[in-house]
């Protein structure tokens, strides 16, 4: 049985904030409490409120502000001798590093966060940090290495009845099944995630689950209309909660659905929008995937073959450098789709 979703990164008096609170409101409340704690000379409180500030900035796409905030939270936690708060700050920093495509740094920070969480006796930050490691590996396409960890974390979340973390784990496992072609299993897991998120009032998790369901409906069934309906519902949530990254990924998925339906001009517009949004929040993985979709759409709309070949080759090199194996495989498929795989290696 799952209780109502909660946000453990909102600490101190900020525990009154909902997991669905607008990030603009979270940032305002966190900044106010942080200033009060700093003025009163309470580093422990400053660390906790600084965490909420860091996370709000990160999710709003304010990369530099988020970087400063998590580091300040860590320094305050260290000054206060609060090991668990240090772990939370490192978790935030590691999550930001993954968002920025700095995967080696993400692995290091999240690994340290998990260690400190265990040492500090905070099972929640330990779980979130291990989840961050699992997600980092999944994004890089290393499913064999992190699949078991995803399953372990799902079992732990189910045992604790923690809805938000259960939803995260289900969505991660579903995404791996989707990417390896097991669409039925992926759909069932996304569906379960959507149901749990809905009952627990986890609107962010529900929006991500709808995105996953829309993807499977599109690629497996060709159900373009229903997929776009689900994405429109998820988009409304993203806008209401100021979820910049989730909104950009939603727009990219709209492009995917439209492209599969042969609606290439509309797909191009969605990819262009997503590309602008990802660049605004400095999220290189989303930017690369949007570039890929845009290149494919433009090719279908008559773009010069040599330009398409050059774009895809550049994308392949970029993704290879960043260690994004699954995304690199997607580029290779696109090169084969347009008969450019031989040209790409000349």
Descriptive terms for the model:
81% helix; globular; mainly alpha; 17 helices; 346 residues
Set out the fold topology.
Layout: H1 23-40, H2 43-60, H3 63-80, H4 83-99, H5 103-119, H6 123-140, H7 143-160, H8 163-179, H9 183-200, H10 203-221, H11 224-240, H12 244-260, H13 264-280, H14 284-300, H15 305-322, H16 325-337, H17 341-344
Helix pairs in contact: 1-2, 2-3, 2-4, 3-4, 4-5, 4-6, 5-6, 6-7, 6-8, 7-8, 8-9, 8-10, 9-10, 10-11, 10-12, 11-12, 12-13, 12-14, 13-14, 14-15, 14-16, 15-16
Could you describe the 3D structure shown?
The chain has 346 residues and is mainly α. Helix 2 packs parallel to helix 4 and helix 14 packs antiparallel against helix 15 (305-322). It has 17 helices and no strands. The longest helix is centred in the middle third of the chain and has 19 residues, at 203-221. The protein has helices at 23-40, 43-60, 63-80, 83-99, 103-119, 123-140, 143-160, 163-179, 183-200, 203-221, 224-240, 244-260, 264-280, 284-300, 305-322, 325-337, 341-344. The chain is globular and about 65 Å long.
């Amino acid at each position: 049985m799952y209780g109502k979703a909660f946000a453990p990164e909102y600490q101190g008096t900020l525990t009154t904030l909902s997991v669905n609170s607008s990030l603009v409101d979270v940032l305002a409340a966190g900044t106010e409490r942080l200033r009060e704690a700093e003025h009163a000379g309470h580093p422990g409180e400053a660390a906790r409120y600084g965490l909420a500030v860091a996370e709000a900035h990160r999710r709003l796409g304010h990369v530099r502000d988020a970087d400063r905030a998590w580091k300040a939270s860590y320094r305050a936690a260290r000054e206060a001798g609060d090991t668990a708060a240090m772990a939370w700050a490192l978790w935030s920093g590691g999550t930001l590093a993954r968002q920025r495509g700095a995967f080696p740094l993400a692995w290091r920070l999240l690994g340290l966060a998990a260690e400190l969480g265990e040492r500090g006796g905070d099972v929640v930050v330990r779980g979130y940090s291990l989840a961050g490691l699992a997600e980092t590996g999944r994004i890089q396409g290393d499913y064999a290495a992190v699949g078991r960890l995803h399953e372990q974390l799902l079992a732990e979340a189910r045992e604790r009845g923690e809805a938000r973390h259960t939803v995260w784990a289900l969505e991660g496992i579903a995404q791996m099944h989707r990417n390896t072609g097991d669409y039925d299993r992926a759909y069932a897991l996304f569906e379960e995630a959507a149901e749990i998120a809905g009952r627990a009032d986890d609107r962010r998790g529900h929006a991500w689950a709808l995105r996953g369901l829309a993807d499977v409906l599109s690629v497996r069934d060709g159900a373009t209309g229903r997929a776009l309906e689900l994405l429109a519902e998820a988009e409304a949530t993203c806008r209401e909660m100021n979820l910049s990254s989730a909104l950009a990924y939603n727009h990219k998925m709209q492009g995917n659905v439209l492209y599969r339906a042969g609606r290439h001009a509309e797909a191009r517009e969605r990819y262009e929008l997503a590309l602008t949004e990802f660049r605004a929040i400095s999220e290189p993985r989303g930017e690369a995937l949007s570039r890929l979709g845009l290149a494919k759409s433009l090719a279908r709309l008559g773009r010069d073959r040599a330009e398409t070949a050059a774009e895809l080759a550049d994308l392949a090199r970029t993704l290879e450098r960043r260690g994004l194996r699954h995304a690199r495989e997607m580029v290779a498929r696109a090169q084969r789709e347009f008969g450019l795989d031989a040209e790409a290696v000349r």
